[in-house]
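Study this:
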Amino acid sequence: MILADRIRKFVLDEVIEPARAQGRATVTVRAGDVHAALGLRNRHPAVCSALDAHKFLDFASVTRVRRTGPRQSSTVEWVFALN
């Protein structure tokens, strides 16, 4: 599995699905949290690219509500609506 797919699967399994199970309408994902949880090193651009991609929106069945922060950084945050 390529890194981008691993990142997307982690966010779906560990963030999106639990939030759906709790009945939440939205969820916030922070690049630095994903990076740390996956034990990555200097791969913040990969996290940002994986979650910025339309492929993630389709894969997780979510809609991007907002993205804040620089282009590629540990401080980037996304708010996704759980469709």
Observations:
- Helices lie at 3-21, 31-37, 44-52, 54-60.
- The CA atoms of residues 28 and 79 lie 4 Å apart.
